[in-house]
Amino acid sequence: DNAVELHEYIHGRKAPKLDGVRFSVLALGDQTYEFFCQTGKDFDNRLAELGAERLYQRTDCDVDYEEDAEKWMANVI
To answer: Where does 1-77 have alpha helices with state H?
Structure first.
């Protein structure tokens, strides 16, 4: 819910070009759901489409996310 406005904005007509912006996505989800980490996948794809540079691959985390999140943080930082 916290990311709804940003999600709508970057997927809308007024989304800016993001050349020079670097990003990485840590997606949180639950593998029991059909669309596991879908919002994270949406953000990752759209940011790249807008010209941002992926500095580390998207990491999809299940409910036990601590180990994956720590690895992601270490690689991003």
So the answer is: 4-10, 38-49, 66-76
What is d(CA 39, CA 23) in angstroms, rounded to the nearest whole number? 15
Strands 22-23 vs 53-54: parallel, antiparallel or unpaired: parallel
Please list, residue by residue across 14-30, b when 16 or more beta carbons sit within 10 angstroms of its beta carbon and e when fewer do.
eeeebeeeebbbbbebe
| Whole-prediction pTM | 0.89
Q: How far is CA 61 from CA 27, 31, 44, 50, 53, in A?
A: 6, 9, 14, 24, 21
Residue 63 C-beta-side C-alpha neighbours within 13 Å = 4
Q: What is the pLDDT along the chain (77 residues), one digit of tens a residue?
A: 788 999 999 999 999 999 999 999 999 999 999 999 999 999 999 999 999 999 999 999 999 999 999 999 999 99
